[in-house]
Design a protein that fits this description.
The structure holds two protein chains of two kinds. Chain A is of the alpha+beta class. Chain A has three helices and four strands, in the order E-H-E-E-H-E-H. In chain A, a hairpin with a 2-residue loop joins strand 2 and strand 3. The chains are: A alpha+beta, B alpha/beta. The interface between A and B is medium-sized, with 19 and 19 residues.
């Protein structure tokens, strides 16, 4: 199991489109993916789960990955937060 | 146990024929979802229903992906698909079914509602827009679980009792050989009625069958010619109707003999009769019922039935139809979706019949449109001179010009790829909006033929919604106003030397067909079941009598007079 703290950097927050991008990337990996925020823990491959976090810009959360490709998955997901959820950049 | 007493109900005859069989009730999809509990042994069945519903709705969305032209819509659809395949939602629904023993529709409904409530409580601004999308998915899934239940159980030889039958359900029903259809609502020109006519399924509408205590599997008799419906008939009644059905079959067989005779009036004036076709199942009737090819090939069913309306699927469908036409022509009407055939239940318009339909929609959905045109042009290469294109719902000249420009693009692209097509493929226009009939002299210069759709022309000329029962008495395609527009179109076409056909239901009434022939319209297209009777009437009368009839009809002051004229003519 690996985990890392990240911050929502884009202005609009983790709204529908970023949530969709996040789930899309996460679903490519076999590892289980959970997001922890204010004591809530949701399945990161569940778009409705991610959306109900209603995370706004500046919100901090912990990405937790568990499975055979956890390292690679964590790297990609952290990068997505860094790129403000733009699937096309970097 | 006391035996059921026969109950006689009467309604409006919609499609001729006698049907004898057991009843099957099409349950209306109720909007409310109740926390219904199921038995332990039903759990597997409900889990399976959820799985199937998910597949059905996913397919619908995948299908939508082919429609939009812009990237934003694709993103939304992708998000909807992610919602559908959300693992946590699936987990929640499955737990509600297998642990709490709730019925599948309530399990879906309540699971989605939990997420919707959380989103509604959060004060982020984007949440509201998203809940609308989630509600849509929830309702589509619930609907899909119910549709499946009704789709599976109807058996061959049963009589379907319904409140009304939506076009998509009618398509499903057409795959089973049902004995008849009884509807509580619906107009004579609703999609379901037209289909039952063309498939020869007896149909009666406006029957208040719900007031009786009808149950699934009760015996019933339907007489589509008189509008009578008998529930739990006596032995005697059943015998009587069986005899009448035999006579009917014999009469049809006699009528079918005309199918082989040449298409000439008693005095030798030639005419052409073609078939209106929608399903491959109807094609064997072209030969037996005496149709010279297909005057109107409806293509909307492809949109409902084929999950991906790609070029290849369409090429196969069109080719199969043309092969069965045995050298005669096939007029392909471009996708005429919209109105009562709405593609997407969520895209309801305030005035669908005056809205985004026919060519109006196609010109906005260029991907879809180009695919259909490419398929048609490719087929035309294999069957040169046999394929024609018919543009539906045209109201202004610009639409015709734009279609022709897109056809040129398709032709160029095919040439580049060395794919054969018919250089002289004819393009015609549906005359169904009064503006086109009024401007017919100008329009005729830009098209190869006219095809008059009398149902819509009536609806738009008389300002009557043809699905609205309250004003159905006003919907009268025999009104002199409609005849005058037909005459105007015919005269304008003659000026430019282009042919005119009538492909509306008007042509399927023998006297009206005679009147059209009297006006010089020698090409008629109708549902195959009407062909033998129409043909026998046309073959046994003189053209001169028909001319006199048409002159009378064109100078009539109201529809009532036209009815009288036609009835008198029939009596002679």
């Amino acid at each position: 199991m690996v985990s890392q703290k990240v911050t929502v950097k884009n202005e609009a927050g983790l709204h529908a489109r970023p949530a969709s991008a996040l789930v899309k990337i996460a679903s490519r990996f076999e590892s289980e993916f959970y997001i922890k925020m204010y004591g809530y823990k949701v399945n990161g491959k569940s778009i409705l789960g991610v959306m109900t976090l209603a995370a706004e810009s500046g919100a901090e959360m912990e990405l937790i990955l568990d499975g055979p490709d956890e390292e690679q998955a964590l790297k990609e997901l952290v990068k997505l937060f860094e790129n403000k959820f733009d699937l096309n950049s970097g | 146990m006391k035996k059921n007493q026969p109950t006689i109900l009467s309604g409006k005859p919609a499609a001729a024929g006698i049907g004898i069989g057991s009843s099957w009730i099409l349950e209306k999809e109720s909007q409310s979802v109740k926390p219904v509990k199921i038995q332990k042994d039903e759990v597997q069945e409900h889990l399976k229903k959820f799985k199937v519903a998910k597949e059905v709705v996913s397919r619908e969305y995948e299908k939508l992906k082919l429609l939009p032209d812009d990237y934003n819509a694709l993103e939304i659809i992708d998000a909807q698909l992610q919602t559908l395949n959300d693992p946590e939602v699936a987990k929640g629904i499955k737990a509600k079914i297998s642990e709490n023993n709730y019925a599948v529709d309530y399990a879906i409904f309540s699971t989605f509602n939990e997420y919707i409530q959380v989103l509604e409580k959060s004060d982020v601004t984007w949440a509201n827009d998203r809940t609308i999308d989630i509600v849509a998915i929830r309702d589509e899934l619930v609907q899909a679980t119910r549709k499946n239940k009704t789709e599976l159980t109807v058996k061959e030889g049963q009589i379907v009792f319904a409140s009304e039958i939506p076009p998509t359900v009618m398509v499903e029903l057409s795959h089973t050989q049902i004995a008849g259809i009884v509807m509580e609502k619906g107009g004579l020109t609703s999609h379901a009625v037209i289909l039952s006519q063309s498939l020869g399924i007896p149909c009666v509408i406006n029957v208040n069958w719900k007031s009786s205590k009808l149950k699934n599997g009760n015996n019933a008799i339907i007489d589509g010619s008189t509008g009578q419906v008998i529930l739990t008939p006596s032995w005697k009644q059943t015998q009587e109707y069986k005899k009448r059905k035999e006579e009917e079959v014999a009469r049809l067989r006699r009528g079918l003999k005309w199918a082989k005779e040449p298409n000439k009036t008693a005095c030798g004036t030639e005419f052409t009769l073609r078939a209106n076709v929608e399903f491959l199942e109807e094609l064997p009737r072209l030969k037996t019922h005496g149709a010279q090819g297909v005057g109107l090939l409806r293509t909307e069913t492809l949109l409902f039935e084929v999950h991906e309306f790609d070029v290849e699927d369409q090429v196969n469908f069109y080719s199969e139809v043309i092969q069965k036409a045995q050298g005669e022509s096939v007029t392909i009407r471009l996708f005429d979706a919209g109105g009562d055939k709405l593609l997407d239940q969520n895209e309801q318009e305030a005035n669908p019949f005056l809205g985004w339909r026919g060519i109006r929609m196609l010109l906005d959905k260029k991907n879809l449109f180009k695919k259909q045109l490419e398929a048609i042009y490719r087929v035309s290469g294999k069957f040169k001179g046999q394929v024609k294109i018919l543009i539906p719902m045209v109201s202004v000249l610009e639409e015709i010009l734009e279609v022709k420009a897109i056809c040129e693009i398709i032709k160029k692209s095919l040439s580049k790829r060395d794919i054969a097509f018919d250089e002289n493929l004819q393009i015609g226009v549906m005359v169904e909006v009064p503006s086109i009939a009024i401007m017919a002299d100008q329009i005729a210069r830009h098209v190869d033929f006219f095809s008059i759709g009398t149902n819509d022309l009536t609806q738009y000329t008389l300002a009557v919604d043809r699905g609205n029962e309250k004003i159905s008495s006003l919907f009268n395609s025999l009104h002199p106003a409609v005849w005058k527009l037909i005459k105007m179109s015919k005269d304008a076409a003659d000026q430019e030397g282009i042919p005119v056909a009538v492909c509306g239901e008007m042509a399927s009434k023998p006297e009206a067909a005679a009147c059209l022939l009297g006006m010089g319209i020698t090409e008629l297209s109708m549902n195959t079941s009407s062909l033998p009777v129409v043909k026998s009437v046309l073959c046994t009368h003189n053209h001169e009598e028909m001319k006199i009839l048409s002159e009378g009809v064109l100078s009539a002051e109201c529809a009532e007079t036209v009815h009288k004229l036609l009835e008198e003519w029939r009596a002679v």
